[in-house]
Structure formats: structure tokens, C-alpha cells
Amino acid sequence: MTTKFRARLWAAALLAIAGASANTGYSGASGTAVAASADAHITRASLRAVLPDASLRAQETFDRFLAGAMLGRKTSPDAAVRIRQGDAALWLFGVSATETGFTGHAAGASEAIAFNRADIVDWSYAPMGGRMHGNFAARAMMDVLPDHRAALIATTLSLDPMPKGW
Length: 166
Hints:
alpha+beta; 6-stranded antiparallel beta sheet; globular
């Protein structure tokens, strides 16, 4: 299976997670309104309240992720990192360590994006045939989402955010 095909599969899974949370009204924009009428008790503030802890957890475990996902290779087709750039957050694939930090590629982009450890807000590791590890923001959002939306996210995630042996 090619790296490009794996990236497409991964992007589809991440979009499913984003869709489950986006349908509740969380967009990352400012304000406290919620879009979905059935989920009106969820506010953007309640979703935002869980994200700083998720980001901290991702940063605390980043070295273990890097060592486990890379396994001595320059890049890992099974790994992705979510970074913050200004007001936007994006997932990068094909992450590589450099002398000054890291680089990765956004889905469909040919040009590498440079980032450093402080930019990292989440990571994901999805070995072929397995569920996604990491994804701390999605795991945190499950605590404030309605059960039916949390169940959608749970179908893509591993039980433990860290793979065995990491």
C-alpha cells in the first residue's frame, strides 16, 4: 500500500472525527453559541475547556510518540502531527525531524511546512489495520459530546492513547 493511499485513508478518518465534533457546533471560532439543536447544551466554551489539557498531554508524550513512530526511520507513514499556525490548526503527514525542529506536509500539499515543538497541539499514530493512538483532542471532546457523537469518534480510536511498548 502506498504512502499516498495511507494518507488518504488517514485523512478520511480524521475528517470523520472532525465531522463528529463540527456537527456539534465546535469550529474553533470565538463565541459561545452552538449550532446543533439536539446538542444545545454543548457550548464552544465547554469544548475549548478540555483542549488545553489535551494539547499538554500531546506535548508531554511527544518524545515517546516520535521514538515509537519513527523506529529509526526518517519519516513514518503511520504518523501525523497537528500543529497550530496562527488561528488555524492543521494535520501534517510525513513528519521528519530537522536540525532546527520538524517538517511535515499538509494533505495534498507538496511543500513542507516547518514547525517546532511549541506548535504541536496533538499527534496521531494509526498503524495499518489498527485504530488511532494519540488524538488527545478527540479523546477529550468525547467527555463533553453527547453519547451518540462520542460513539462515532470512539470507533476510530484505540482504547489506550499510547501503543504498547511506548
